[in-house]
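Morning!

This is the sequence you dropped in the shared folder:
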Amino acid sequence: MHTLKYHHQSLKTIGLLMLLLVLQSCAASPVTDGKIIKPTNPQPVSKGTIYTSPDGLRYLVYTPRGYERSSEKAPLLLFLHGAEQRGNSFDMLRTVGPNIAYETGSLELPFILIAPQLEDNEAWNPRELSNLLDEVESNYRTDSSRIYVTGMSMGGYGTWILAGKTPERFAAIAPISSHAYVEQSLAVRQVTSWVFHGQHDPLVSVNEAIDMVKAIKALGGNTHLTIYEDADHDAWTRTYAASEFYEWLLDNKLQNESTQTK
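The structure's back. Tokens below.
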């Protein structure tokens, strides 16, 4: 009788431990069935950690909730800001782009997010950005088949430039409200892209986005265009607030064997 009672208690204990492990696993994963979770009671995920690259580029790194408790590799998202966020204060970066999701917990994103900051009057340099990605990949558990880059305004142009220099590195890119020149279409045609623009953008004509997408499609590339009919230059706020945007990124994965075994 005592043996049966002990056996019952042991099974109960094991069951509770298994339930706890399941709950911890769920808490550590921001994605459920391919969907990004939008919490009903948002809690900040991270304020980001500040680093300086060997090239002197200062940047923030955000890790997803539960990253420290997991041994799995995480997708990597590089965010390039616009001209107005240049300077020496990361406070300007914390309230724009995907950074908002980590700072406020508005969305539970699964990415390791990199957010570099340019100094005044600087422009995005693809060599420095490639070196930055190398550094982060060597210091964090990253899934090299799921590396993405997105940017707004000047950062959108930086997205095109970087993808054109190393198209084999990215599973998908998303330039927003940026200059785009059809001469670049040949270099970026092999990278899946989603382009966003405001119909009434007074700084960068929407026709640049339209022409770029047409050129890429003519070369057989996989690209999409979203034009917000009621938007001006700011086509990024609603884009980065939408869970569907990040779900689309995650749907894209490199299939190159050498990339996956990197």
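Headline: Residues 38-260 form a domain with the Rossmann fold fold (CATH 3.40.50.1820).

More detail when I'm at my desk.
O.
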